[in-house]
Write a structure and sequence with these properties.
The chain contains eight helices and no strands. The chain is mainly alpha-helical.
Length: 192
């Protein structure tokens, strides 16, 4: 009985000591090229989903209007496109981030969802407002107004729907007129 009790005590003591040694000697996979920790996705995503669900705003104070879509497109180009790309032009370094920055104007590989258009706007708002630790996603609460964050969140929520030509013009980085843009096949794909 005493040996079992001693084994339990040593086990309880050795696990934290081994864990501290693993951290202390730099064996934890912290580089982008390192393989992920066992169940890393679950370790991070479960509390993230719970927090977002708890704090989710369900009724945006901004409506989906053409002016708000255009304003959201300006915010997107200025603050988001560097990491999340624009339609037809993914961000060159996004795939080399860990986790990779999602391309918000492209369809997912496993379904026809474009970017985060399947997420409620309040979830996107939460992520833009608060940022997400250890992903490269910064918090914009000190850089953008609440209205600007809602505008870009609503724009991304409607990425799978037709957008106003002026918003498409901004998102494509094109100085052409709305008439020319509407006839562009690449823009028609964006509008779908």
């Amino acid at each position: 009985m005493g040996k079992v009790f001693l084994g339990i005590i040593l086990g309880v003591l050795l696990v934290p000591v081994a864990l501290c040694g693993w951290f202390w000697f730099g064996k934890v996979p912290v580089a982008v090229a390192d393989p992920p920790l066992y169940h890393e996705h679950e370790i991070v995503s479960i509390p993230l989903r719970a927090r977002i669900s708890r704090e989710l705003v369900k009724n945006p104070p901004v409506q989906v209007t053409e002016d708000d879509m255009v304003a959201g497109a300006h915010v997107y180009i200025e603050k988001c496109a560097t990491c999340h790309g624009i339609h037809g032009k993914p961000a060159p370094f996004a795939a080399f981030m860990y986790p990779a920055a999602p391309q918000l104007w492209e369809k997912h590989a496993h379904n026809n969802v474009i970017g985060v258009s399947d997420d409620p706007p309040g979830e996107t708002y939460w992520k833009v407002y608060n940022g997400i630790r250890l992903t490269g996603m910064p918090s914009y609460k000190m850089m953008l107004t609440s209205t600007e964050i809602w505008q870009v969140s609503l724009l991304l929520a409607t990425a799978d729907k037709p957008l106003p030509p002026a918003a498409i013009d901004i998102l494509r980085g094109s100085p052409t007129s709305p008439t020319v843009i509407a006839s562009d096949p690449a823009v028609k794909a964006l509008e779908r």
